[in-house]
Amino acid sequence: MDDPEAQSIANFTRMESPRFGEPPSGGSKEEFRRWARRMRRPGIPEDQAGATVDGIAEWLAGTDLPAGSVVIYLPLPDEIDVTPVLDRVSRTFAVTRTPPRGPLTLHPVEAPRERHRYGFEQPVATAPLVDPSTVAVVLAPGLAFGPEGERLGRGGGYYDRFLPTVPDGAARVGVTVSALVADGLPTDSFDVPMTHLATEAGVRAVGRTLGRSDRIVSTIAP
After folding, report:
1. What is the pLDDT of residues 128-150, one digit of tens each?
2. Predicted confidence (pLDDT) per residue in 91-135, tens digit
3. What is the rounded CA–CA span in Å between residue 222 and residue 220?
4. Residue 203: CB partners within 8 Å, gap ≥ 6?
5. Chain CA centroid to CA 25, Å
6. Which of 91, 73, 24 has the alpha carbon at shortest distance from 173?
7. Which domains, ranges and CATH numbers included, belong to the chain?
8. Residue 84 needs a FRET pair 20 to 30 A away by CA distance; which of 74, 91, 141, 216 works?
9. Looking at residue 13, what DSSP letter applies?
């Protein structure tokens, strides 16, 4: 199919199809991961991805955010590319690096890059570090999300180890599309939920107030 608009419509229809898109009721994380990968296989429609990025840029520019870095990721082929916000918002940005083991590390967005063995770009190991305590916002990818901010990653646990290192008041923004927000997403005690979800419908606050020991609720207005 050569027509990009027609392809986008076809992808959207496939993602929204009840037969194809029904998430596994009561399923395990691996069952939800298989469902999410099937949903993402044709690619997230460009119009939905673009609308999601537009909403993030508008939210970053218009929300009374505290001073601090905005953490972005460099996308895999099936993830929404959030890098266009770099040219649209006047903020300090940091980007994640996925080390062989341990939590993600943060580096200046302009740091030299290399290609990870899984195909995405990342800062080189010798790039200067950014202190996680300076972070105001984290834009986080995921295979799927729940309506209360539950996040289903790819199973490596990188973000679940990284997110507790940023301030409690930092906004954790799950970047996705509405078709990949599913009820009944299973979670474990170590899973760190999002405070906001960014979809083609915009950025909205989600989640609940937690105890002090595991509190990650954003102090930023939705």
Report:
1. 999 999 999 999 999 999 999 99
2. 999 999 998 887 899 999 999 999 988 778 999 999 999 999 999
3. 6
4. 55, 56, 58, 59, 173, 196, 197, 222
5. 23
6. 73
7. 45-214 (3.40.50.10420)
8. 216
9. H
d(CA 23, CA 26): 9
Q: How far apart are CA 88 and CA 195, in angstroms?
A: 23
Would you give the DSSP letter of residue 135?
E
CA dihedral 200, 202, 203, 206 (to 10 degrees): -80
Alpha helices in 90-170 (DSSP H): 158-162
| 8 Å CB contact between 117 and 99 | no
**CA 38 to chain CA centroid, nearest Å:** 18
Q: How far is 68 from 63, CA to CA, in rounded Å?
A: 13
Q: How far is CA 155 from CA 10, 46, 85, 150, 161, in A?
A: 29, 26, 27, 14, 12
For residues 192-222, b (16+ Cβ closer than 10 Å) or e, as one string? bbbbbbbbbeebebbbeeeeeeeebbbebee
DSSP track, 87-144: GTS-S-EEEEE--SSSS-EEEETTS-EEE-TTS-EEE-TTSPP--GGGEEEEEE--SE
Please say whether the dihedral angle defined by the alpha carbons of residues 162, 167, 168 and 170, taken in this order, is positive or negative.
negative
Encoding tokens for residue 55? 């909403």
| Residue tagged 């469902």 (tokens) | 35
Structure tokens belonging to residue 43: 């690619």
